[in-house]
Amino acid sequence: MFNYHLNNKNPLYAIIYAMKEITFGSVVIGFTEKEDGNQRILENRKISFNVLIPNQKHTNLVISAKNDLLQEADGLYTSEKGLVLGVLTADCIPIVLFNQDELSVIHAGWRGLFRGIVEKAFSFFYKKPTFCFIGPSIRVCCYEVGKDFLEQFEVESKYYIQRDGRYFLSLQDIAKEKLRSLGLDNIQDVNQCTACSGKYFSFRKGDFDDRILSYAYIKE
Ligand SMILES: [Zn+2]
How far is the CA of 165 from the centre of ligand 1 (A)? Predict the structure, then answer.
């Protein structure tokens, strides 16, 4: 169940406590939890509609959802009403960019983020996306990275913390900074860590095959 607080200052804000779905004007966003089962398995998807999921490979590729989904991609875009787009994750960030007529669903790990998948998704929009949703993902409390990693990618110090000589990265902060630099300030972050909340699958915690599903669609 949802038990986090959403920013209700947004005029598009509306929430329905059904099927773990949130509605922002014409756009519906949902995500599963561990108790919903591994969403890689079709029978576990207890939703009444077909979800288009790209062939995720940690790339920066975004494709129109009408294209062949067997090709590698980590983001889908559509302006078609009723078309449900999704990504499967276990620690990586599910991101939904949208305005009231278009949306993009992105699987963003560090590779995708560093390689510019957010910017790629942005470029698909005819009208600028006005809203962003950041789903359950591993956060700075748990996402340990090596010093060599930070050095290799020249990660700015504002994106990580140091604790007992160890380094923890905030992918969400990197994503948010990218979004703000693209002019998108309206960011809804569920603020849930997949690794320590116990409510989601976490690759880092040993859930190598299990995935949660995040999806979004524009209402017909
Ligand atoms: Zn955590």
Answer: 18
CA-based nearest residue to 183, from 115, 132, 148: 132
For all residues of the chain together, what is the average pLDDT? 89
- The reported pTM is 0.89
CA of 31 to the centre of ligand 1 (A): 18
Is residue 159 one of the residues assigned to a domain? no
Q: What residues have a C-beta under 5 A from ligand 1, the ion?
A: 141-142, 193, 195-196
Distance CA 127, CA 129 (A): 6
Identify whether 78 is part of a domain. yes
Ligand 1 center from residue 159 Cα (angstroms): 15
- The SS3 assignment for 3 reads coil
pLDDT in tens, 117-130: 999 999 999 999 99
**The domain spanning residue 194 has which CATH number?**
3.60.140.10
- Residue 191 Cα to ligand 1 midpoint, Å, equals 10
Q: Provide the domain limits for residue 105.
A: 13-138+171-218
pLDDT in tens, 150-200: 999 999 999 999 999 999 999 999 999 999 999 999 999 999 999 999 999
Q: How far, in Å, from the CA of 25 to the mean position of ligand 1? A: 31
Distance CA 21, CA 75 (A): 20
Please count the CA atoms within 13 angstroms of the CA of 97 that sit on its side-chain side: 31
90 Cβ partners below 8 Å, 6+ apart? 194, 200, 201, 202, 203, 207, 210, 211, 212
